[in-house]
Amino acid sequence: MFKKILIANRGEIACRVIKSARKMGIATVAVYSDADRDAVHVEMADEAVHIGPAAASESYLVADKIIAACKATGAEAVHPGYGFLSERASFCEALEKEGIIFIGPKPRAIIAMGDKIESKKFANAAKVNTVPGFLDIITDGAHAEKIAGQIGYPVMIKASAGGGGKGMRIAWDESEVRDGFERATSEARNSFGDDRVFIEKFVVEPRHIEIQVLGDSFGNCIYLGERECSVQRRNQKVVEEAPSPFLDEATRKAMGEQAVALAKAVDYQSAGTVEFIVDKHRNFYFLEMNTRLQVEHPVTELITGVDLVEQMILIAAGEKLKLKQSDIKLNGWAIESRLYAEDPYRNFLPSIGRLTRYRPPSEGPVGKAIIRNDTGVTEGSEISMFYDPMVAKLCTWAPTRLEAIDAMADALDTFVVDGIEHNIPFLAALMQHPRWREGRLSTGFIAEEFPDGFHPIAPTAEDRDVLAAIALSVELVRKGRLDGLSDRLRPHTGKIRAEWDVRINDEYVPVSIHQSIAKPPVKIELSLHGGEDITIRSDWRPGDAVWDGYIDDRSVKAQLRPVLNGMRIDWKGMSVIGHAMQTHVAALEKLMPVKLPPDTSKMLLCPMPGLIVSINVSEGQEVKAGDTLAIVEAMKMENVLRADRDLTVSAINAKQGDSLAVDAVIMEFA
Fold first, then answer.
1. pTM of the full structure
2. Helix, strand, coil: what percent of the chain each, to 5?
3. Which neighbouring-strand residues pair with 170?
4. Could you tell me the CA-to-CA distances from 661 to 75, 250, 437, 667 in Å, in that order?
5. Catalytic site residue 288?
6. Which one of 35, 364, 399, 419 is least enclosed by Cβ atoms within 10 Å?
7. Can you tell me whether residue 514 is helix, strand or coil?
8. Which tens digits make up the pLDDT trace of 287-302?
9. Cα-based distances in Å from 639 to 207, 629, 655
């Protein structure tokens, strides 16, 4: 067994590998760039080696620097995590030349599965289902009709040199094939200078389901069930679960056996994942094989009890796989939510900055559930523009799917992150979505259910009552604390008025208090809207970021943040301003003038913290809707800012190279 390994990665996956290595008694070496000098993975490892500037191309992606770090520290093996060098065969070969073990598959398997055409050839040879299609060039419309008829409708006509959705058409019947062929070839010619197209079967209501495999150097290979990864946004996975709510045992077995057949065909020796597209009739087709550890591997670990990182290390050390297929049992249900530094209310634009507060839910058993949080940050960590915006992977396990979802909803409600924008509100809203809870999924789920993006969720009347109860209990605790101060100018009467109003955003909820203990643990008996009595119980104290209590017998967890004239309450994807006040005060508040937000309709605001790459217009220029106004770079991605209507540029307030904050005014219009 290895005595020391180096982790050629950063962030949460580096921390994850260190945990398994530590459990196995193996010393670890971290590598870090300038931006990661104070990162959590650097602190966790036994040793750390600086490998260059912040840019990944000058640090984490430089194989020679990783090899030099191995030599300097005596590391016998390298775990690549995912991303960076994890699927680069040349890196494996370079390590091999230096006598350093790569904790992953052999170069042959990486090369074979890294090429889409080559991987399909291996899949066909291994009798793995592939999407029916005609991969040769289609000569004309008549030829297209003939091929489509042989494949069966619907079909996808794709440009051979295509990308970004260009040169793609779906044909549902014969009448659409010829026109689709003409339009696809024309679009491909204009976009890529290459009008070649091919045709393959279009999978209706597709699901993205993947099979986890483990193979050793002795020819043994097993599968560890599946993961459902259909909840995606722009082909980026958002929430994963294991097992899939869609598969039956027969389909699971067939997919697993085909995944193992493909792994054996390329002599696969490590943990790997075979991805499939599954249609609504449970027909499944090979998509690709990821020759590395997947981001979503924790859900498989939670339902099988198998430590995949540990198995990768054992296999790389030359040990025989001790697990047999009959040993793999799927127990319960696991959900993973990817927490990203991105603003869901601004079309998920990236957000960077320092985590001024980072309080994840406690890991371990919670009732029937288990909470797990894989992360590479802590309070005070900086989310950099140089790397992936992932903050954490929050996972829950429970005996049933709905119990796991409910545990995830509660965990998200108690996951406090400040200093950056993040997608917790979106994830929390997903946990309440009926279609998600029922398991009626496809890769188009988010696009179909949120066609105009994600917007703040308006509370229902029932939700407002819950939020009002929380706000009132907090105000009574605050008031009770102030009334108990020994240096009050006026003695406290000891009386709490019975009639209150709680404003939730712009709605007022009338409350009558019947009995109150305002010091923690709080117990308040009241009625809302003059209705039935309810009881509030909570241990919340001033300064706590999370309100955790009961409204009657209902367990409620919500986040609280003080704001001017009230508090912000975040609960189940909702974010509202709550303010509890006595009824006569509420009557006066309703008479106060409302301050309107400034009019920014004639301004171009910077949608994220970023660098101005270019200003594409000049003062006095008339622009048309859709014209490019400026380009802003953030997290190494260029974002094109376009005019939403015909305008005239009156002033330009930024120039190329400027670093701007969010909502900075780039230009103004007449």
1. 0.88
2. 30, 35, 35
3. 156
4. 42, 54, 38, 14
5. yes
6. 364
7. strand
8. 899 999 999 999 999 9
9. 30, 11, 16
